[in-house]
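Structure in, sequence out. Go:
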């Protein structure tokens, strides 16, 4: 839900979605408290129009419903995703309509707390890394096809290789301009 919207907007949508299920089913039947997400079966059995009333776009509602269906029918399980290696996780989740590599990387990093996830496609990470190595990040550069990049993927991977298997430093790249970098400058 949080892709391409602010954190505040995503939180508001989640709150409204949980509230819709509590209203629709009643608190006891929904199995949710005020902050718990409804079950995959509950989401999968809902129509897209209902999901949209929480503030989701049609496309996002379709994607969320599709993901819920995969959990409801057992194609995906929390245990399966938790125990999958990074390659298996990527394969399983990018097979779900609406989930791309960036989404899987964010899920692996923030939800599964995987330590060696590094997203070269994230503009915040690119900007932070470019600033860290001393590039002028005030000038965003467009490459062929109109894609904006602060650094090339190959440069990012080459620089980040020395941090493997703990490239969790990606988290810091988002915030690099907000804190003193002396502690990590000599790495």
């Amino acid at each position: 839900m949080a892709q391409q919207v602010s954190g505040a907007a995503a939180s508001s949508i989640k709150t409204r979605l949980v509230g819709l299920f509590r209203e629709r089913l009643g608190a006891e039947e929904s199995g949710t408290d005020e902050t718990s997400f409804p079950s995959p079966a509950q989401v999968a059995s809902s129509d897209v129009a209902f999901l949209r009333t929480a503030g989701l776009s049609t496309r996002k509602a379709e994607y969320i419903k599709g993901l819920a269906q995969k959990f409801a029918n057992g194609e995906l399980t929390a245990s399966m995703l938790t125990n999958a290696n990074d390659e298996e996780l990527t394969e399983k989740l990018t097979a779900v309509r609406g989930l791309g590599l960036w989404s899987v990387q964010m899920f692996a990093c923030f939800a599964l707390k995987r330590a060696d996830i590094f997203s070269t496609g994230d503009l915040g990470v690119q900007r932070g890394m470019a600033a860290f190595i001393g590039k002028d990040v005030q000038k965003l550069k467009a490459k062929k096809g109109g894609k904006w990049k602060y650094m090339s993927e190959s440069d990012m991977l080459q620089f980040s290789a020395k941090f493997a298997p703990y490239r969790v430093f990606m988290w810091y790249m988002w915030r690099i301009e907000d804190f003193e970098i002396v502690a990590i400058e000599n790495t």
